[in-house]
Automatic annotation (TrEMBL):
Bias (Basic and acidic residues): 1-17
SMART domains on file: AAA
Protein's UniProt name: Amino acid/amide ABC transporter ATP-binding protein 2, HAAT family
UniProt cross-references to Gene3D superfamilies, sorted A to Z: P-loop containing nucleotide triphosphate hydrolases (3.40.50.300)
Keyword match Acetylation: no
Amino acid sequence: MTRNDWQDSRGNKDRSITRPGGSTMEQGSAPADRVETTNAFLVGDSMTGGYGQGPDILHDCTIAVDPGEIAVIVGPNGAGKSTGMKAVFGMLNLRKGSVRLDGEDITALSPQDRVVRGMGFVPQTSNIFTSMTVEENLEMGAFIRRDDFRQTMEQIYDLFPILRDKRRQPAGELSGGQRQQVAVGRALMTKPKVLMLDEPTAGVSPIVMDELFDRIIEVARTGIPILMVEQNARQALEIADRGYVLVQGRNAHTGTGEELLADPEVRRSFLGG
Ligand SMILES: Nc1ncnc2c1ncn2[C@@H]1O[C@H](COP(=O)(O)OP(=O)(O)OP(=O)(O)O)[C@@H](O)[C@H]1O
């Protein structure tokens, strides 16, 4: 798979970074650059708001990601991680702050319109159609496309070979990790400019988690920015170019994954020492 296979050409930055595992990606320069937010490709900037008429859950919360990067949101239970992701996707009414995609203010757009603009979102639950086959799920993912999507489907089968084997099976018969692959594949069918994943490894074994992370890295290497919420903070920060630790709806710590993993306060408070 080559860069931009999934997506339309959009002039991604050409940069380089070495991953913890030693593999090299075309990516960022100085660490400080990689957590720069204001001009990032996707930015939820100083977001304050909550659900409906309820109290604010997010307080001046900022989340961002650039092409080729994996940005990870971590933090304790109830910190507002999923809420932050939903706010970026347009599922909250923000009282303050804005969301920008590729320099354009999309704060007023509905989630549906954000999908049309290039956002792929994989919710934490109910993210596949269990009675439909794997292939039908992928076809459903292409609902906004009018062009021939077979090539994209082949790319998804190359990324997740097990889905090719199980293409005729109802998705509900698949294992948890395989279902997550269907959900990510379905989102990729729109050829998104950015992919957002809410706890993609929830409920899967450590081995399956590692496999899913490997696939997520592969997608990021094609240039698609990935913003994800993760419960498995340590493992997620290991693959993160940017990490956001949220506490009570606020940014508590921000840095590269490496920086956060090395931060004594983050280690003590959020990573079990
Ligand atoms: N649909 C909703 N309506 C109203 N309040 C909600 C809704 N979803 C979440 N909340 C509240 O928002 C706060 C943050 O929840 P959120 O799910 O964003 O946290 P989280 O950090 O993702 O937690 P977890 O790690 O447990 O999934 C919680 O107090 C929760 O009760």
